[in-house]
Each structure stands twice: as C-alpha cells, then as structure tokens.
C-alpha cells in the first residue's frame, strides 16, 4: 500500500510542482509523511495502519520526484551533479539510520509504534528548514516572477557568472514556453519509428522497470524477516544483521560512484546484474535447504511443555513425520518451534505461539522460532543478502545511466546529429 501511495504521489507531484512550485510540493510531501507516521504509531488496528502506510507512500512518491528536480534547479551548475548524487546516497544512508533506530527500540515498550512514529521527526525538521530555502529560479521564471528568480541566482552564483546564468535560464524557459504554445502536434508514432528515440526510450524505461523487478523493495522492507527465515531466531539479531546490510547498501553507493566513470555504465550494469543473479541463487539454495532439512519435532521434547502443545500436532495422524517447517505452517492456532537446549539442529518441540510460551522457552536457554527454522547454512544466506545489496547499489548511478545510454544511442545512430538533437 505504501508503494501504491507512492505511485499516486509521484503522479500528483508532477502537476503540483508545475502549479505551486518545487518548495511547496516538498512542504506538502513532508506534511503527508508526518500525518502517515502519526496514524501508524497510534493505529489501534491493521486497517488504520494501512491508511497510515498510504499517507507515507503519498509523501514518499511526491518527495522522490520533487527533491532531485529542486536540487538540480536551485544549485550551482558546478556542483549540481554531485548534489543530486548525494541525495541518492543519503537515501541509502537514511535506510541504514532507520535500522539503527529500530534496533534501539526493540526493547522499548510499544516497540513498533516507536519505530513507525519516530519517522515523523525528519519531515518536521525538513518542513521548518525548507522555509529558509528559496523557490526554484526556473519555476519562478516560468511564472513571470523574474526579479525573484534573479535575486536567488545572484545568491547562488559568483558575480562574474550570474548575468550569463540569468540569460541562459531566461532563453531556456522562453524556448520551453514557445514549444508548449506551438500549434504543431507531436506525432508519437513517428517519434517511436525513429531509432534514436526508440532505443533511448527502451533503455531508459527498461532499466527502471527491471531495477524494481529484481526485488529490491522486498529485500529492504523485509530484510529482518529474511534473516529470520535463514535461521536466526532473535528479532534483535535480525535487526542487527539487517543494519549491516543497510550499511552495505550505503557503502555500495560510494563504491559505484567511484567506479562508474572508470569502468563505464554498461560494464558496471552487466557486472551488477550478474552479481544479482548469483546472490539470488545463493539465497534460493539456502532457503531450499532450510525448508527441506529442518529439525524434526520430538514428542518427548514437546511433552516437556505438555500444556502448550500445538493442537495440529496433537491431532495429527502422522505426527512422527513433523519437522520444524510443518510446525510453523500450522494454522489453528499459529505454532512455533522451541529448539533443543543442547543444539538447535537437534529435535525440538512444536508449541502454541504466544508470549508466555516464548518466555518459557527462553527461560530454559532454548531458541524460539516462528518464521524460519534452525539451519547450519544461515551464514550463507547473510553472504547472499550482502552481495545482493552491494551489487544493487548502483541505484543512484542507474538514474544517470538513463541519460548516458540515450546519448550513446544518439552517437551511434544513423540519424543526422542535428535531427537527433532536435528530437
């Protein structure tokens, strides 16, 4: 639902940017995100929690398309690329910080309410600070507020450069307005028949689509769950290990920034995709091994907790064939696996899943599993997850690759350069 909200937020954000300005759009995105965080933290039920997620998604979608636009239009040309790339790096850095905050709240009363509610602080800070920043000079020029735009440009650029920047911006905006007011209609079919346009469009759109199809959102949202599925029982341990993967995401962004101009976009992209295939293969293999070779359920161990035996296990005709995975799949009610105190890979107990049973299991120095089962290959899953994050971390640079690939196709195309440039 957060992603669905982000789709709507990005679509509405485009219109809002043109109508009310970049700064106003960011302020509205902050407000939506704050409302979403408050709703989530105070949600008495799952439906209201989902409503909060939608509000957060609206804010994320609007901010995701507005922030790079605002940065590119309100920053000096010399550092514009660096600032846009820094924005992407800070996204991955923010993910790392969020896992760190979650780790701090694992022992706090209310746990997840604090984790979700604290997300309301950054939009408050940004909302206040945005009043100290100027509107986009380009948007002001388009709205006929030239004097305001010139005043902002004089603050951004040195005295010897500002007049030329004002002239360039004015000419660019006037050219845009003339194109918009032209009576000549764009022939979409004719454009798509142009090799340059078609190749650039295919590369740009395809890159963004497949970037999502490899499952990055699932990994970033559910990495603690993935860690638990790999055989790590503790919520705190899962969050701590997820913190490492989020840190690797930020580290990978720095590494890719360094290599992108040295190895080339295409080569880096191919290496990244091959790495993703390998790391996902490792994860698949580990999960298959975990589910097909999980510890068996022992009737002796289970009878040790006689008052809390899983009902499905008690009534099963062939309970001797039960293992940890079958125990976790029990549905009436949900059950958990209490591992052997000697070795987590030895036969354990299949019990009703609740806080009382969990505490009793822990009191006997046993591990309590409700999502994944004990496995000796869990560390391989962590390696696979870490490699996946590192290889994917060209997210910032892939945005730049869209432009770079388009111009490569233009340079290699059969179209005259003047015609391609015009298109």
Automatic annotation (TrEMBL):
It is found in: Membrane. GO terms for cellular component: membrane. PROSITE patterns: MFS (PS50850), SUGAR_TRANSPORT_2 (PS00217). Pfam families: Sugar_tr. The keyword Cell inner membrane does not apply. Residues 1-423 form the Major facilitator superfamily (MFS) profile domain. The keyword Iron does not apply. One of its GO terms (molecular function) is transmembrane transporter activity. It is a multi-pass membrane protein. Keywords: Membrane, Transmembrane, Transmembrane helix, Transport. Its main location: membrane. The chain crosses the membrane at residues 25-44, 50-71, 83-105, 111-133, 200-223, 238-261, 268-287, 377-393. Belongs to the major facilitator superfamily. Sugar transporter (TC 2.A.1.1) family. NCBIfam families: SP (TIGR00879). This is Inositol transporter 2 isoform 2. It comes from Theobroma cacao (Cacao).
């Amino acid at each position: 639902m957060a992603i669905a909200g982000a789709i709507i937020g990005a679509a509405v954000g485009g219109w809002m940017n043109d109508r009310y300005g970049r700064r106003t759009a960011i302020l509205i995105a902050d407000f939506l995100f704050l409302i979403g965080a408050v709703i989530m933290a105070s949600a008495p039920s799952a439906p209201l929690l989902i409503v909060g997620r939608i509000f957060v998604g609206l804010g994320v979608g609007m901010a995701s398309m507005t922030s790079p636009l605002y940065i590119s239009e309100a920053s000096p040309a010399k550092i514009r690329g660096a600032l846009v790339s820094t924005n992407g790096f800070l996204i991955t850095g923010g993910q790392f910080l969020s896992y760190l905050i979650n780790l701090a709240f694992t022992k706090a009363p209310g746990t997840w309410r604090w984790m979700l509610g604290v997300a309301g602080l950054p939009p408050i800070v940004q909302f206040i600070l945005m009043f100290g920043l100027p509107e986009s000079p380009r948007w002001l020029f388009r709205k006929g507020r030239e004097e305001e735009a010139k005043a902002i440009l004089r603050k951004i650029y040195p005295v010897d450069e500002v007049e030329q920047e004002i002239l360039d911006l004015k000419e660019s905006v006037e050219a845009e307005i003339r194109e918009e007011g032209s009576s000549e209609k764009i022939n979409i079919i004719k454009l798509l028949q142009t090799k340059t346009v078609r190749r650039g469009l295919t590369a740009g759109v395809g890159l963004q689509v497949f970037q999502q199809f490899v499952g990055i959102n699932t990994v970033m949202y559910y990495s603690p769950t993935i860690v638990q599925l790999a055989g790590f029982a503790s919520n705190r341990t899962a969050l701590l290990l997820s913190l490492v993967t989020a840190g690797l995401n930020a580290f990978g962004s720095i590494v890719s920034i360094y290599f992108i101009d040295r190895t080339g976009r295409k080569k880096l992209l191919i290496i990244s995709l091959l790495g993703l295939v390998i790391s996902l293969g490792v994860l698949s293999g580990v999960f298959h091994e975990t589910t097909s070779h999980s510890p068996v359920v022992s009737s002796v161990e289970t009878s040790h907790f006689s008052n809390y035996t899983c009902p499905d296990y008690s009534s099963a005709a062939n309970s001797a064939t039960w293992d940890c995975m079958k125990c976790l799949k029990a549905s009436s009610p949900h059950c958990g696996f209490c591992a052997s105190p000697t070795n987590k890979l030895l036969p354990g107990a299949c019990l009703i899943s609740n806080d009382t049973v969990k505490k009793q299991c822990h009191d006997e120095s046993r591990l309590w599993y409700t999502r994944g089962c004990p496995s000796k290959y869990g560390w391989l899953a962590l390696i696979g997850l870490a490699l996946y994050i590192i290889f994917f971390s060209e997210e910032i640079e892939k945005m730049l690759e869209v432009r770079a690939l388009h111009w490569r196709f233009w340079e290699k195309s059969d179209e005259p350069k003047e015609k391609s440039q015009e298109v």
